[in-house]
Design a protein that fits this description.
The complex is a heterodimer of chains A (285) and B (627). Helices cover 74% and strands 0% of the residues of chain A. With 285 residues, chain A is mainly α. Chain A: Residues 81-270 form the ABC transmembrane type-1 domain.
Chain lengths: 285, 627
């Protein structure tokens, strides 16, 4: 009994390690990005052609070095996080909300709603992202809000598919039948019995898509469809630094590291959230 | 060294000798010892039954003999398994090399598992799968192997073996698949056959057939059999010797007669007292609660008392079912026209009275569960009327139908599957109260949940736990508490005790009967288990292919069965009494499929009354005057 308790407490300590690291990475980066107007009032725009391509850890004024235009890499990484985080997180949240709702309705009610929604989903999945994005942004014009809209519009279908699949399996499960036998209404079944049971795969897809969307934003910007290319963003910096990779690795490596730690942090938080929501992994007090 | 001593010991001795075997599993919470220091011998041509409830380590023991525990995360941490292969010296299987083991598995030792569907590969034909073993171990060429496969299928009494060879597993019924599994196991004339609950998933009449086949083949081929089961009836029918396992340990070993007549260990006595015995209520008109021996720690304890269940009130029925028919469309043409239907329920009539238990008995496909689900409005009936308290369900408003879901409750077979894993059991029990708005105040709801938990023999603090933290029996108690939460008049129990261990089953049956007396509940008790039916029910309806073939008072059905199917069903039940002559009647035949082409309606049986309230379907041969 004592051994069992010790083992389960080491398990929950591991769980909280995930939480602590997740908050440390994702939270630390978010905090720095939030404070960027105070930390770097010039917005990372200050050019100094006299101090171009200084390597990192050599000049106290430019700890992470400078880029080909003499701009401070650290400042640009922190400021660039504004665009990247806003795009990455808002686009995913929007897609999750719409996709989950559609998936729940389609999977639970079957029949005509399912057919209509899922055929729509299939068509949308068949269209190449770039094509949709170009059409969309050509009509609406460029801008960060439009970029987010394009991403939501193209990605909610992924969530709808995953959620519908899980719901199809769940709705035949006996506890759903048993809830219905007791007289529980459809709305309550969907939101209190089905939704908590489909969160696992959603959380995983979400953390994957955040990273994906941070990079997508830079592709769109590169094509001239996204944000003003002069405003720094991680994806944009990564793309700019590519040409200097041989001579000045720091220009692209630091924004890359920023993306990596953000995604790692979100992944850890996602794992923690998934386990937190699953009672079979823990013992109640 | 040990091999030499082993061979000298085993020559002309037992075929298999398990000596102080211990098996451990590594879990998140440290190593767990599933089998502790178990020893037994198996001699050629004998059947050893290993009996125990879930978690007793009986299956792990059988897997460890074949060293299959290597593949399931288990580790043999002590003891030896000495085996005498054909034409060679005895060897210790726990130390044998992988090559040697592969040679023995399927060749000298064969195994049959519980679930014949999952043990057969769905993408290969039956013929190919049997032939595979033969080509591998007997080095036959494919043509010879096919011929042998056909012989084997005939040996397990499968008709039309030639055509079966080219069929896929999903095209066969469960009983046929299990026979194919036996044919595969016997392909290389094994010296030892290990059967792990081979008939648990099958209907009783099919179970009787399979047991017969195993017994006959054993006599014919002189195979030794290790029969793993939880069913004392099957033990009495099959075994020569019995090993009783409890919590990973062997608590008793004796010849089968001694186990049943003079059990030594308290656990064996508790197990036997819990086994429902067909015919135990002979001569009694009413069902009766009897005390059960329960293992409390290491000591047996008597729980409950004898109580005649005189609860039924035959003044006015609570439920009247008339010509209820439920069909499902299955086959459709390209244009959506229905070609085939499952005739699950066909013109079924019965009444149920307050405080009464009516058992619906039948095998798979008989439509018994569909009746329950139709009454609970989980399935729409095709035609017929159902009256609850005199009100026709079809004419009820939406609101009244919702209220009906409060007054009729359903308990499912698998308590784990029917509880939402993401919510505490307290939440699950409170849900019907909240949904029907029976109590508004949160504190009062909590109090009520606690009362319900106490009523079903659990504790109030259990409300905060999740379903996975309970044992199977406790979970079924939670499901009963949930069903009682809305204060129902009628409870439909769909195989609610079938998946439970016998000792737990006996307690749950007693609990249901006690609650019936306290609350005047009516039960519609759906099951395939005749022995439980005898204990709990006031009246019995026997179903076959969607129709009731016999209905009447329990005593009449059990002591004077009139319909041939009822008799067949009763004779198929394994009796937990080794003195009884084994397999007097040979049961043959599959259960026909209830799927019919559109336009081919089944004939509706006409019923005749043979005793007070005892109705029997007139059989075709009786009509012709043959019987």
């Amino acid at each position: 009994m004592a051994a069992a308790q010790a083992a389960s407490s080491s398990r929950s300590r591991f769980r909280s390690l995930e939480l602590v690291l997740g908050i440390l990475f994702a939270g630390g980066i978010s905090l720095a990005v939030l404070l960027s107007p105070i930390l770097f009032p010039d917005g990372g725009e200050g050019m100094d052609l006299m101090s171009r391509l200084i390597p990192p850890f050599q000049d106290f004024k430019h700890i992470l070095g400078t880029d080909p235009l003499g701009r401070d890499v650290l400042a640009r990484v922190v400021v660039g996080g504004r665009i990247s985080l806003v795009v990455g997180i808002l686009s995913v949240l929007g897609a999750v909300l719409i996709g989950t709702f559609v998936g729940l309705i389609a999977g639970y009610y079957r029949g005509i709603p399912e057919m209509l929604l899922m055929r729509f989903v299939d068509i949308q999945l068949a269209l190449p992202f770039i094509l949709v994005a170009i059409m969309f942004l050509a009509i609406l014009g460029a801008g960060i809000d439009k970029v987010i809209l394009v991403m939501i519009a193209t990605q909610w279908v992924q969530y709808a598919r995953i959620v519908r699949g899980s719901v199809l399996a769940l709705r035949e499960r006996e506890f759903i039948l048993s809830a219905r036998a007791i007289g529980v209404g459809n709305g309550r079944i969907i939101f209190t019995h089905i939704l908590p049971n489909v969160l696992g795969p959603i959380v995983i897809l979400m953390t994957l898509n955040v990273a994906n969307n941070i990079l997508l934003e830079s592709s769109l910007t590169f094509l001239g469809l996204g944000v003003d290319p002069l405003i720094p963003s991680w994806g944009g910096m990564l793309a700019d630094g590519r040409t200097y990779l041989q001579t000045a690795w720091w220009v692209s490596v630091f924004p890359g590291l920023a993306i990596m730690f953000t995604v790692l942090g979100l992944n850890l938080l996602g794992d923690w959230l998934r386990d937190y929501l699953d009672p079979t992994g823990q013992t109640s007090k | 060294m040990s091999d030499i001593t082993a061979s000298s010991k085993l020559l002309n001795g037992p075929l298999l000798s398990v000596r102080s075997l211990s098996v451990e599993f590594g879990t998140e919470r440290g190593p767990f010892r599933a089998v502790k220091d178990v020893s037994f011998d198996v001699s050629p041509g004998r059947t050893l039954a290993v009996v125990g409830e879930s978690g007793s380590g009986k299956s792990v023991t059988s897997l460890a003999i074949m060293r299959l525990t290597d593949y399931t995360g288990g580790r043999i941490v002590g003891g030896e398994v000495l085996f005498q292969p054909s034409g060679g010296e005895a060897l210790d299987l726990t130390k044998a090399s992988d090559d040697k083991l592969r040679d023995i598995r399927g060749n000298d030792i064969a195994m049959i598992f519980q679930e014949p569907m999952t043990s057969l590969n769905p993408v290969f034909t039956i013929g190919n799968q049997i032939a595979e073993t033969l080509i591998l171990h007997e080095s036959l060429n494919p043509r010879e192997a096919r011929l042998r496969a056909k012989e084997l299928l005939q040996k397990v009494r499968l008709p039309d073996a030639d055509r079966l060879l080219d069929r896929y597993p999903h095209q066969l019924s469960g009983g046929m698949r299990q026979r194919v599994m036996i044919a595969m196991a016997l392909a290389c004339n094994p010296k030892l056959l290990i059967a792990d609950e081979p008939t648990t998933a099958l209907d009783v009449t099919i179970q009787a057939q399979i047991l017969n086949i195993i017994r006959d083949l054993q006599q014919e081929m002189g195979t030794a059999v290790i029969f793993i089961t939880h069913d004392m009836g099957v033990v009495a029918e099959m075994a020569d010797d019995v090993v009783v396992m409890w919590k990973g340990e062997k608590v008793e070993q004796a010849p089968v007669r001694d186990i049943f007549t003079a059990p030594q260990h308290p656990y064996t006595r508790a197990l036997l007292s819990a086994v429902p015995r067909l015919g135990s209520l002979k001569g009694e008109p009413l069902p009766k609660r009897t005390p059960v021996i329960v293992m409390d720690g290491g000591a047996p304890k008597l729980v409950g008392d004898t109580h005649v269940q005189n609860t039924a009130d035959y003044a006015k029925p609570i439920l009247q079912v008339e010509k209820l028919t439920t069909r499902f469309d299955v086959g459709k043409t390209f244009f959506g026209r229905v070609t085939h239907r499952v005739h699950a329920v066909e013109e079924v009539n019965f009444d149920l009275y307050p405080g009464e238990t009516l058992a619906l008995v039948g095998e798979s496909g008989s439509g018994k569960s569909t009746i329950g689900r139709t009454l609970q409005q989980l399935v729409e009936p095709t035609s017929g009327t159902v009256r609850f308290n005199g009100r026709d369900m079809a004419s009820m408003s939406q609101g009244e139908r919702r209220r009906l879901r409060q007054e009729i409750q359903y308990i499912f077979q698998d308590p784990f599957a029917s509880l939402d894993p993401r919510h505490t059991v307290g939440y699950s029990i409170a849900e019907p109260i909240i949904v029907h708005g029976l109590i508004k105040d949160r504190k009062a709801i909590e109090k009520r949940v606690h009362e319900l938990l106490v009523q079903v023999g659990l504790q109030p603090q259990h409300a905060k736990r999740y379903p996975h933290e309970f044992s199977g029996g406790q979970r079924q108690r939670v499901c009963i508490a949930r069903a009682l939460a809305s204060d129902p008049k009628l409870v439909i129990a769909d195989e609610s005790v079938s998946a439970l261990d016998v000792s737990i089953q006996a307690q749950i049956v007693n609990l249901l009967m006690e609650l019936q007396e306290k609350r005047g509940l009516s039960y519609l008790f759906i099951t395939h288990d005749m022995a439980v039916v005898e204990k709990i029910s006031h009246r019995v309806a026997v179903m076959y292919l969607g129709q009731i073939v016999e209905i009447g008072p329990r005593q009449a059905i059990f002591e004077n069965p009139q319909h041939s199917y009822t008799r067949k069903l009763l004779s198929a039940v394994p009796i937990a009494d080794p003195e009884r002559e084994r397999a007097k009647t040979r049961i043959e035949g599959e259960i026909p499929s209830p799927v019919r082409a559109v336009g081919q309606e089944p004939a509706i049986h006409r019923m005749r009354e043979v005793g007070p309230g005892h109705w029997v379907a007139i059989e075709a041969d009786a009509l012709r005057g043959v019987a």
